[in-house]
Amino acid sequence: MTRALAAARLYLLNKWMLVWIPIIVIGAMIALTICIQLIVNAAGGRDEGVYFNGAFQAALWCIFGVAVSASTQMFPFAFALSSTRRDFLIGTLIAALGTGAGYGAIYALLAWVEEVTGGYWIGAHAFDLAGWVAGGPGPAFVLYGAAILFMFVIGFASAMLFKRFGGKGLIAAGFVVIIAGSALAAWAGLTDQWRRIAEWLVGQTPVTVGLYLLGISALLAGASHLLIRHAEP
User: Fold this and answer.
1) How far apart are CA 232 and CA 164, in angstroms?
2) Range 171-198 burial, b when 16+ CB lie within 10 A, else e
3) Rounded distance, CA 148 to CA 105, Å?
C-alpha cells in the first residue's frame, strides 16, 4: 500500500495538470457564464424559466485529458521508482477517487450557490442543471464526484489501451464503440424503445446517475487491470 500511495502522489508532481488547470477552467466557465447571461439580460432575453448552458462539462473533459496525459507520462516513471503494475493501478485509482471527491465538492458547492442565489442573482446557471440537482450539495456531490471519477478512469483506461495496443488499437476500440452505439440506436428505433428509454431517463435522479457512473467506472478499472498487465511502459 505504501508503494501504491507513492504512485498516487506521482500525479501531484505537476500540480498544474491536476490542480491548477482544472481550477482555471472552472473559473473561466463561471466568468463566461456570467458574461453571456449579462448579454442575454441586456438584450431582453431573460424570462421566468430556469436554463443552464452546459458549461459544467468543460472541466470534465479537462480531467479526461489530464488523466490521459498524466497516466502516459507517469507509467514509465513509476517503473523507474520500482513500482509494480498493480501498485501503479491502485495508486491511479486512489488519485482518481481523490480527484472525484475534491472537484465533486467544488462542483456541488457551485451548484448550491447557483441554487440559493438564483444564478448569481442574474439567472446564470452552469452547475445546477436547471434545478435538477436542487436540494442541497449532497446529490450534486454524488453526481459530479462520480462523473469526474468516471472521466479520470476512462482517461486512464484509454492511456493503458494505447500502451498495450498502440494507436491502431485505440482507433479500433473507438470504431467498436461507435458501431455498438449505432447498433443499439438502430435496435431502439426498430423496436420502438425510444419512448421507454426517455421515460427511464426522466425518472433518474442525480444520485442514481452517480451510482450508475460508479458502476461503469468499476468495470473500466477492471478492464484497465487486464490492459496494464501487458502494457509497455
Assistant:
1) 6
2) eeeeeeeeeeeeeeeeeeeeeeeeeeee
3) 11
Averaged pLDDT, 51-65? 84
Residue 108 grid cell: 456541488
Buried b (16+ CB within 10 A) or exposed e, 103-117: bbebbbebbbebbee
Amino acid at 143: L
Q: What is the pLDDT of residue 46?
A: 62
Q: By mean pLDDT, which of 21-35, 58-72, 75-89 is the weakest?
A: 75-89
Average pLDDT, the chain: 89
DSSP letter string, 13-39: SSHIIIIIHHHHHHHHHHHHHHHHHHH
Q: Using only C-alpha atoms, what is the Rg of the chain?
A: 20
Neighbours of 58 (CB within 10 A): 15
